[in-house]
Specification:
Length: 61
């Protein structure tokens, strides 16, 4: 395998990593209960997905 002849500088490595940022999740609103939920997921608070109830609703304590 090939090995680097000289060491890369810190600036060169950091320039390469400029796009390694974390993006926030794309959270939408549930059309049934209007609580935040991820797209294409069952709503964790009401259990609805695409107008049908798939899970039992969790009781808030």
């Amino acid at each position: 395998m090939a090995h680097p002849k000289r060491r890369h500088s810190k600036a060169r490595g950091r320039k390469r990593r400029t796009h390694w940022t974390i993006t926030a999740p794309n959270v939408g609103e549930c059309p049934h209960c209007h609580s935040p939920r991820l797209p294409h997921h069952v709503c964790p608070s009401c259990g609805y997905y695409k107008g049908r109830q798939l899970l039992e609703a969790k009781e808030v304590s």
